[in-house]
Amino acid sequence: MAFESLQGDWRSARTLYRDQRYLIVDKPAGAACGPRDGEPAELSEEDERPPSEDTPSAGSLSVPLVAMPVRASGVTLFGLGDAAAAPGHGDGWPAPLLELGMVVAIDDCRLPSEGELTSLDGAEHVCLRYRVTRRRASRALVLVSGRASPELVTRSFAAERQPLVGDAAAGGSPATRLFLHVQRVQLGSREVTAALPIEFESWLSGAVERPPSRLAEALLEAAPARAQLWPRYQAYRVLGEDSGEIAGVSVERYAEHAVLSLSSDAAWNERERLADCLMDHGARGVYVKRRVRADLRGQDPLLLAPPAPLRGSPAPDSVAVQMGSLRFWVSLGDGLSTGLFLDQRTNWDRVRRGARGVSLLNLFSYTGAFSVAAAAGGAASTVSVDLAGRALGRARQNLELNGLSGPQQHLLRSDVLGWLDRARRTGRRFSWIVLDPPSFGTRARGVLRADRDYASLVGNALELLEPGGRLLCVSHQLGLSAAELSALVLGACHAGGHAASVEPWLGGFDAPSVPGVSATKSVLARLS
């Protein structure tokens, strides 16, 4: 099986202790402990979730007895059988669990070298003991102990205006993980420990990302966060640069092949060794793409994206990959893009679940993934607009592949800005609009620059939205934060006289939305 070494169950590989009632594991950051542990649902309601130890049932593994955030790591206690319903499964504290010992990272640390923090957990006051163990300039690693959950510890430091690194919502420094590691649990007379992850030492020394030379290590550490995907998805991001997992490198799986995208000179210079590493982990072949931040019209496409794999055997010219209940065509050797932007996988599922009876307008539709998702969800009609004829041809094939083609699915080759202007004059309206423009692209006249044109695109799209309609805005601009995108979309709604609410849509396990790190942001506006 392709990539088999990256598809194991992290619980079995990281078991620290097990008896008839309890299982204790060293949870990696990014690995979800339960089916819906703070992440968007990967499956829709009508999909049958594959059997797994994460599905609570008699005698099976339940959710942790003390809540463990997805982006934190360390010793995690699960109940087995009757112990899964023990006190502490809700708001209490499991009887055999005496306390937790955690290491947290704080930037701009102003705490005394040791002390206590008192926090309110429900109606109970909880005392946390802390000691600063290491400092480097303003950075500090702090050892915390007490009868408190990781979530309470995170809130307690935020209340002291000393938010943890990675707790961006509380003002902490942006990071790809929450810098909280449960290093020790006291379970009755037994003490169980987990070694501190290497990224804590790297952060303290000033390093931000793992270099390309550490690809094998990064693959194995990232794999647990993808474990919920591989039974149902043949295409997903194995390792993401804009998730901060490794400098200059992204790896995507497409069935039995890998696509290696490199955005730095250091990564490009190591491309052959990186490809060999992916072959060692089960890839049938490895295609390489060079990502440059420049006008691609002046670049040689064959140098940026060779049509043949760098290692292994070639894939067919077109490969149909299974994405949950949908299928899409991809071409791995046909330019920089494969035919799917995998960071939108959870957004496709959300649109599908909310599409029954809607009329959907898909702007900058590319190969039509949002249109296919909406049609599969029972949309009354879809309109896909893109200037690229080849992309629209692939959109037609994707609709046909899923048995969804028909007169209610409209594919229009046009410059989006010009089409919006014409549609506004004719009074067209839609109940769903998806706006996912490239950061930089060609137009029928001139070029499109998202940093310059995004606000006007949102305003023009809103004029075609029905009362009570929804507008999904996606941005890939590195300099635009999720909060700034939300403010931009809300401002455009108000400027157009629309009462609206705006909410961020987070990425999935393979493309998480990390504040200050991830390039892709998604915001949904709902008109009143």
What does the model show?
- There is one protein chain.
- This protein has 528 residues and is α+β, with helices and mostly antiparallel strands.
- 23% of the residues lie in helices and 30% in strands.
- It has three domains: 4-204, Pseudouridine synthase, CATH 3.30.2350.10; 212-316, 2-Layer Sandwich (Transcription Regulator spoIIAA); 341-527, Vaccinia Virus protein VP39 (Rossmann fold, 3-Layer(aba) Sandwich), CATH 3.40.50.
- Strands 1, 2, 3, 4, 5, 6, 7, 8, 9 and 10 form a ten-stranded mixed β-sheet that branches. It has a seven-stranded mixed β-sheet with strand order 20-19-18-21-24-26-25, with helices on both faces.
- The radius of gyration is 24 Å and the shape is globular.
Give the N-terminus to C-terminus distance in angstroms: 49 Å
Model regions low in confidence, pLDDT < 50 over at least 5 residues: 35-61, 87-91
Report the count of strand segments: 26
- What fraction of residues sit in β-strands? 25-35%
Helix content: 10-25%
| Overall shape | globular
Kindly report the name of the CATH homologous superfamily of the largest domain.
Pseudouridine synthase
CATH class descriptor of the largest domain: Alpha Beta
For the record, the CATH architecture of the largest domain stands as: 2-Layer Sandwich
Largest sheet entry: 10 strands, mixed
Q: How many distinct domains?
A: 3
